[in-house]
Amino acid sequence: MTAVVTGLGVMAPNGTDTEAYWAATLDCKSGIDRIERFDPSSYPVTLAGEVSGFDPADHVPSRLLVETSAMSHLALAAGQMAIEDAGVVPAELPEYEMGVVTANATGGVEFGQRELQNLWNGSPSDVGAYMSIAWFFAATTGQLSIRHKLRGQCGVVVSEQAGGLDAIGQGRRLLRSGHRMVMVGGTESAMSPAGLVAQLPGHLSRRDDPARAYLPFAADACGHVPGEGGAILIVEDARRAAERGAAHRYGEIAGYAATFDPAPGRGRPPTLRVAMERALADAGVAPADVDVVFADASGVPHLDRAEAEAISAVFGPHRVPVTAPKSMTGRLYAGAGALDVVAALLSIRDGVVPPTANVTEPGPDYDIDLVVERPRRAPVSTALVLARGHGGFNSALVVRAVQD
């Protein structure tokens, strides 16, 4: 069984559809700016990658608007784009052979904050009934399943930044178990005071200059910028996709692996390298066959150093290009991996490696071939996408051009 991607849907801070996002990324146009959803002046972090110009009412039925949170609104919009891009008509396929797997790390935090404010300022009767479900990590999977009548196996992955890749890996497993199509990916939206405060104990950049706040692998990196958005993909069994005459075959999900780091103080190394090696082995490709690595790119010096060392250890003398287009969106948590997979597939389609924004060269501690300032034209047939989640999650996913 070969898993092929036939549909893409993107909601990103620098583009609210696939081609708009890709054009902005190749032009090195960032969606990171001062937070507009609320006044951030009293917070130590004032920048984020917000999805601007998006009106949920244009994409989500009015009934669902009051039942769902922003994370689900973004996924419903991206999911519809992916369905249309794939040319899939779910009603024409067996409903129990189509599933949904999404990832999320922050939940519907802005929905929950609003309802708790209603409780604080009023009474229990002022809290909406949907408070019980709209905040939940699995709400997006359920709403996508209901809306498109995808009644096969469904699930949600909660592994922070690694989640988007884990959802795609789980979707490939469902295809191997007999499903013919799976909707996969991840979206996030924690753009509320409560959502921002929950992230402050982490590694957020305190700089207020959008061009200097998130600088992965740079000598003066100081953390990352939060963001919202993500991507939804349609993944199908290649044979069945061909039978229905799928218009697009962006690439194959060729390899996937996930690991978990040992607890601090155990004297054992982190396991990102192991995840990379296992994903490559799963795909049956050698390091020399990889044309680009889409990095996790935390923007935190010691974490960037550990990632650069893992890349160097796996690829050795093969100086594989490394890029971090999330430098233009912020770290979208569970939405980031899925969005990077979209970028990897478009790199294969167009023969170009997107740049890392605002970084002129990697710092002296990072022995990697970082693509900076402008796109790099080169044939791309195989890409490795990396993601690490807070707490020790590591995931690696290999995508490659369709092997006819």
Automatic annotation (TrEMBL):
GO biological process: fatty acid biosynthetic process
Chain coiled-coil ranges: none
Taxonomic superkingdom: Bacteria
Alphabetical list of SUPFAM superfamilies matching this protein: Thiolase-like
One protein family per Pfam: ketoacyl-synt
Name of the molecule in the record: Ketosynthase chain-length factor
Family to which this protein belongs: Belongs to the thiolase-like superfamily. Beta-ketoacyl-ACP synthases family.
Origin species: Streptomyces acidicola
Molecular function GO labels: 3-oxoacyl-[acyl-carrier-protein] synthase activity
Record domain Ketosynthase family 3 (KS3): where: 1-401
Keyword field: Acyltransferase, Transferase
SMART domains associated with the record: PKS_KS
